[in-house]
Structure of Amino acid ABC transporter substrate-binding protein:
Amino acid sequence: MKRSLARIGAAAAAIALAGTLAACSSNSNNSNNSNNGANPPASQSAADDGAKPGEDAGFEELPLGDDVFVGPLKVGGVYFQPVDMEPAVSTPAKDSSMHMEADISAVADNDLGYGAGDFIPALTVDYQIADKSGTVVQEGTFMPMNASDGPHYGINLPKLEAGTYDVTFTIKSPETNGWLLHTDEKTGVKGRFWQEPLKAEFKDWQWDPTSVDW
């Protein structure tokens, strides 16, 4: 009888232990599932936190001034560290003060077939940098190019002394480069390209080479 009771007691203890282990395992799984829900895998989190294309190009663009609206165009002028380009057609990065860009896009309701914010291709964009006495210190023509943040017109500028300058972009019509517009009744656009060059001016731009880290 004592042996039977002992066996019964041992069996009961074993059952109780098994129940405790099962409960612990269940709690552990629930805890892991809860944590997985709150903290997704690192790869997923990194993907969720990653910048969308065009949001972060990996460099800081400094403005020449406020955006300029002229004709059907929105014109932004920016500059940042000199860059290497292919094919090499301008001043090498090591010999440059900066890379300057003209970001040119279409305004809404432009009647030329461009969507609002679309990059405008086939432009000839000249630039001129003049000091406050009116003396032109640098001038030339931007090149069309692509960067990680999209297409633009730009160039590496040769060494430029510190000072306050007026920067002017002169923008010729795509028509001068052979860009055509549909004019028929069914597929044509209402507008026509500008005949005289458009100008975007950024006055009193202050350049100080010691204020940048390139």
